[in-house]
């Protein structure tokens, strides 16, 4: 397995090489168009032609075998010659003809029959094609494919009987599987699979199936994979199926020295929150909002249910917000041109220092913003939230004082609320006690705050507690 690679960069990207280290069994190249993903894969193939297979699904052809193409698949050099370009008129026929080549190779290695049975390959492909049944067969057409609908099987003999996504998934899966099987039969020492944007035209559900299939093939046949993609669905599902075996390579035109990063729990959470494609939020002007914890998440996810603003809220659990922001900044910089305004924000309480943009973290995509009050709990004591409950601050102080003796060791923290600075008092230790005293309807304080903020753009004391930075960023 390759642990590091040095690859020539094309002149138009910049001089020098890509130096990539810390490679894993599955390595995901993540970057926007023009960052060099395809060129890197092809250059990697050119350096390792004897044991590398480069696969691009943006190809054409029908899903039938053509025996006259078999002669073009007899050696690694001949096989790779068919994959030199991004487009190939008869790619699908070549893929199906690989089944004939697989049986030819298997005949040469009959002593290795015990390595795997045909049924195992059929089973792997059928996990990818859940609505179909694939089987090998003898004859001019080396397989049968049936669409299985409630037990009623319909033979599929032509590409016109499949959707574009189904066709792509079938030929892509078959290409990968036949390649891996041939390597296994030949006892190949090195097995390098290079897949260029397999997610194009494939629904997120099918991308998840492909991720599961790819991980199974990689594990079963000891194949090292490099895969270029824009899809956070594919990124997150591969990472979920093989977290210890998956690393991410962030690529840009300026990238030279790269250390592939392990797909850890943080990346799993973020990519899952981003959904089908990380560009979707930006396209529809829905900003990402990172918040520090569960209470903040309840507030801002409640806000997002109203029509005043749209938000995609991600809870980060305290100090993790800084790691989330840094990762998202890197992720979006690999996918998008620098925006005029940020596409998301990381919201901090006022008890933390507000990080300034710097060359390592310019905050071009995810900008740090800060509440004007001490922390989110203070919003609960603003006049506007109290008015929504049906009381004013004087009445709230009476209720808190009356109930102070019910809270044991916390009594002394609750006896003089009239002395609190509602904007800057540390309410976190006693917010539940204050909530219970003030709001007879037992609505969670965070939910109450979210409802008031969400109904209309905040004004008055609530706007002052939130601060102009928050208001101008989220209600621009």
TrEMBL record:
Residues of the AAA+ ATPase domain: 23-255
Protein name as annotated: AAA family ATPase
UniProt organism field: Fodinibius salsisoli
InterPro entries for the chain: AAA+_ATPase (IPR003593), AAA_GajA/Old/RecF-like (IPR041685), Bact_Antivir_Def_Nuclease (IPR051396), P-loop_NTPase (IPR027417)
Signal peptide residue numbers: none
